[in-house]
Amino acid sequence: MSRTPARTPLSAATSLVAAALVLSACSQPAPEAATDTAAPADGAPAHAFSASINADDFAARVETLASDEFEGRAPGSAGETRTLDYLKTQFEAMGLKPGNGDSWFQDVPMVETTADESTVLKLDVKGEPRELAFGSDMVIGTRTGQPEVKIDASELVFVGYGVNAPEQGWNDYAGVDVKGKTVVMFVNDPGFHAKDASLFEGKRMTYYGRWTYKYEEAARQGAAAAIIIHDTEGASYGWDVVKNSWSGAQFDLRAADDPEPRLPAQGWITGDVARTLMADLGQDLDALYVAANKKGFKAIPLDATLSLDLKSTIAEKESKNVVAMLPGSTRPDEAVVYMAHWDHLGNHSDAGGHEGHGEDAGSGGEDHIYNGAVDNATGVAGIMEIAEAFAAQEPAPERSLLFLAVTLEESGLLGSKYYVAHPAIPLDKTVAVVNLDAMPVIGKARDMTVVGFGSSELEDILKTHADAQGRSLVAEATPQDGFYFRSDHFNFAKAGVPALYAKGGDDLLEGGTEAGHAAQLDYRDNRYHKPADEFSADWKLDGVVQDLEALYGVGRDLAGGDRWPNWYEGNAFRAANDKLKQSRSE
């Protein structure tokens, strides 16, 4: 996840950081108090946690959550049970209270669907049969909760980017009826592959570019199936990430808890498969990229059909959000929320699925546990560090602090979606949300990245703390990757609650932007959504500590005052916030 650099002269940065140390000494909670908690997991050593935000405590928490004993923290697994027990124990030791009434947890009903990976997509291409294999050529799944989905000879239609955006004057479905058909489309926004800054938001991905939106729109159009053509640049990750993320158990909310229409089947095909398929149909994939990036694009019926017999194992289960609260001293009904998702991809053992209980290595010595150390044990450890700081703060915060560790982020931000529909604190009384997801562990930076930079007044508050550290706020360097729509704050944003998603930047004190970009790309290419995302004692955590101190400062200012921040003028979420404001005044 690379970011846009912002250069500060080293001499200036040094003096500013020195000043920041003085300010920090006045604003941080007393560090002397220590809490000796119980051993976090079977066989794990006990650790004495101090009230200050510090690297040792952070590392101990990440190492525990990302250990093999937690089995990759898959929802509905033994790893979830260990995770929930650990978080409750930690929050309770800090002196926090249950945040969901008298419970530490919020039940999130879910449907677990595990597709049979022997499934093939059967194509008829101009009368010639062809089969696509699961994993190597395509991935496919269903959100219907049905153990068998059959599609017979569904006509293929290429619909460009699969976007219907009236405010943009763009409709890839104009003039075509796709009911019962299979739509094939590109990932990302119109304009992206053509590098046309005049379309949509130019380089920055909008929600229309996200794969989740594309399936939602295809369902609204009545399609039988939707297939996205993968390309690494457009998706911002390689095919291995798609394959790993879509293999094994997939989780969803029950249809009763999610009124959006659902497709019978949805999936991806590789770019190579798409290129060959289009060529056999007399189409050129590169030419289709050009055509789909022009206003007035018309969908193209293809001389091919898709048939599918998708068998899945279905189980209705539940997962849990963790909800911990530090009640405010004078206005406990108003709350600032810190959040992070605790879930990851689990154990892809030979037993199958995300919750197999075999060893972490199969017969060939392959690691099957997706430990999710950076993604997102770092974020969960981060909110625990901040919670501990608030618990020791003097004077105590006037507003409540809610610490929310949500489930099912990896399945489409479902735990946070459920919470927003069933909040422990009413949304009109929720002052702001600070989201921690995949904290950089690459050392101190001269900048701090705000994902979705230019969105809300929370950035004004964060800027004061970044300034005190000698750092500047910058936008993400790859807005085309759509990170703003890929983490849990997005559900709060859609509901109008001001949300901040910020973390360390790329302009490292050691090595500058070249080293920062290289480190972020190394993580993306070699560890993101792979078993290699494991804790390392070699991580450089001084930058994380700075990030957490700055984000703690935002909450401290809000919890100690009476400000209700809003989205900036012109932001798409401001109207929803105005409705919350009206509800608050009634």
UniProtKB/TrEMBL annotation:
It comes from the Bacteria. Residues 321-547 form the Peptidase M28 domain. The keyword DNA repair does not apply. One of its GO terms (biological process) is proteolysis. GO terms for molecular function: aminopeptidase activity; metal ion binding; metalloexopeptidase activity. The keyword Protease applies. InterPro entries: M28_fam, PA_dom_sf, Peptidase_M28. Keywords: Aminopeptidase, Hydrolase, Metal-binding, Protease, Signal, Zinc. This is M28 family peptidase. It comes from Marilutibacter maris.
